[in-house]
């Protein structure tokens, strides 16, 4: 794929147009197609299959057959070999995957390349864990033997969001496959292609037919029948709270296990003694990476009053210098994913203005300065909102940073926890004792200290409160796809 040809308006070729079921691309049962839009231009660049319950049934049947007859019986070392090969193939195809990711979701190309490399690392990490998944023994009385084993849960369904398509697909598929589970993935209808390409690469790496299946289409026509399917053993969902609640209700009828990674309204706590340059860089990236379309974005700046004015002056100045443009030109700041989402983000700021909010920078719909096209919203900072304000309490999922002023560290803790969400939090201070004290008291699934988005696939990730439950990434993520069997035997 040639970037300049794409930017010049030439057709994008080489994209899959069907579902991936039982080891090959197949036409959808309905024959209907859906448009995929390039957010950087706001125009259609490709089409994909519009799936339905019939396609879901075929994918689940394929996954069930592969689980019962092949994959659960495949030696752990062989599963590891296949996942390692998949990591190699992802890296070998990194440029192509990143271009497709940028076209699908809009993010700058360098960010997309980072996501692709992260996906490769996910398969690499869990390849190394395949043959280390071992149980325990129990100290029973003489004459008895007790032990436990980890077994794969079975067929797993993965509902993938549109903001990090290849990253989220990989962080769910890699541990599921490592544990011996089979997969049916449903990518977001806005961003279907990298999940399909990833499934193809897994087959090329040696994954048996039926072990990984991908069905594209809408949540109503594909997601709903997948989460209610009686032969699905676990659902991993990443997305909004409202949809996550629906997934829980749907899964309840069949007592299907669920892992939910939902929304966030994450605080970045900045104390007076912070490292200035480190903190400015961290706060900027925490909210404006991927145009703020990150569940764990640092969307609330909780800052001590002593440095509030000087810090915001510099933060606003740096925000104004961010370059905006089509993701394939690799700007510092890209578009939001859809026209619908652009209107949603704009609505939050329009209502804030009506309430008298002070917009320090940004606050308007804009476009790619080179073409006048695309779905862009200016990087926005809103000053000093009260705790009950909509901008403080509701997830915007866009490039909007809301400021809250704290009188001291204790007040900062109070503000940080004043949310129905509990996904992540950031802390910037050079006093490590203070940092660790705050980390122990903030109610969130993951805490970053002096570097936002620190860590990687090795670190368990997930939320508390309305941000969901269950953990992905790390060894905890591997255990999410296992069930524990205990055995107790009288031997004497």
UniProtKB/TrEMBL annotation:
Q: List each copy of the Aldehyde dehydrogenase domain by range.
A: 25-487
Active site, UniProt feature:
261
Q: Name one Pfam family in it.
A: Aldedh
**Keywords on record:** Oxidoreductase
User: Example GO molecular function term?
Assistant: oxidoreductase activity, acting on the aldehyde or oxo group of donors, NAD or NADP as acceptor
**SUPFAM superfamilies documented for this protein:** ALDH-like
Q: Which InterPro entries match?
A: Ald_DH/histidinol_DH, Ald_DH_C, Ald_DH_CS_CYS, Ald_DH_CS_GLU, Ald_DH_N, Aldehyde_DH_dom
Family classification: Belongs to the aldehyde dehydrogenase family.
Q: Which PANTHER family match?
A: ALDEHYDE DEHYDROGENASE-RELATED (PTHR11699)
What protein name applies here?
Aldehyde dehydrogenase family protein
């Amino acid at each position: 794929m040639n970037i300049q040809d794409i930017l010049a308006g030439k057709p994008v070729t080489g994209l899959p147009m069907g579902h991936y079921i039982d080891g090959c691309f197949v036409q959808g049962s309905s024959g209907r197609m859906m448009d995929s839009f390039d957010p950087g231009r706001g125009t259609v660049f490709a089409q994909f299959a519009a799936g339905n319950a019939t396609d879901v049934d075929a994918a689940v049947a394929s996954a069930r057959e592969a689980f019962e007859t092949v994959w659960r019986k495949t030696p752990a070392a062989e599963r590891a070999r296949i996942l390692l090969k998949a990591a190699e193939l992802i890296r070998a195809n990194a440029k192509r995957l990143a271009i497709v990711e940028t076209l699908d979701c809009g993010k700058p190309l360098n960010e997309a390349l980072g996501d692709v490399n992260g996906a490769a690392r996910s398969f690499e990490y869990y390849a190394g864990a395949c043959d280390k998944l071992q149980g325990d023994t129990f100290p029973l009385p003489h004459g008895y033997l007790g032990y436990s084993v980890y077994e794969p849960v079975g067929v797993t369904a993965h509902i993938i969001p549109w903001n990090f398509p290849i990253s989220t697909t990989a962080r769910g598929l890699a541990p599921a496959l490592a544990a011996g589970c089979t997969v049916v993935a449903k990518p977001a209808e806005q961003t279907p292609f990298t999940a399909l390409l990833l499934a193809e690469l897994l087959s090329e790496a040696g994954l048996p037919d039926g072990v990984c299946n991908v069905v594209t289409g809408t949540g109503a026509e594909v997601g709903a029948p997948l989460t209610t399917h009686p032969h699905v053993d676990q659902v991993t969902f990443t997305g909004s709270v409202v949809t996550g609640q629906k997934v829980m209700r749907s899964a309840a009828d069949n007592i299907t296990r669920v892992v939910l990674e939902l929304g966030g309204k994450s605080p970045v706590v900045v104390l007076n003694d912070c490292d200035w340059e480190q903190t400015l860089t961290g706060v900027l990236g925490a909210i404006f990476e991927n145009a703020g379309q990150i569940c764990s974005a640092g969307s609330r700046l909780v800052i001590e009053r002593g440095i509030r004015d000087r810090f915001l002056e510099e933060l606003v100045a740096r925000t104004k210098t961010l370059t905006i443009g089509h993701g394939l030109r690799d700007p510092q700041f890209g578009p939001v994913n859809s026209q619908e989402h652009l209107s949603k983000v704009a609505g939050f700021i329009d209502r804030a203005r009506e309430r008298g909010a002070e917009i320090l920078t940004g606050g308007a719909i804009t476009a790619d300065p080179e073409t006048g096209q695309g779905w862009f919203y200016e990087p926005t900072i809103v000053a000093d909102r009260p705790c009950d304000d909509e901008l403080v309490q509701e997830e915007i999922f866009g490039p909007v940073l809301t400021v809250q002023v704290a009188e001291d560290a204790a007040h900062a803790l109070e503000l940080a926890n004043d949310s129905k969400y509990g996904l992540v939090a950031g802390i910037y201070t050079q006093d490590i004792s203070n940092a660790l004290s705050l980390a122990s008291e903030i109610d969130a699934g993951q805490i970053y200290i002096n570097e936002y988005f620190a860590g990687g696939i090795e670190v368990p990730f997930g939320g508390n409160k309305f941000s969901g439950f269950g953990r992905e990434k790390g060894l905890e993520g591997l255990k999410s796809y296992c069930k524990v069997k205990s055995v107790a035997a009288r031997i004497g």
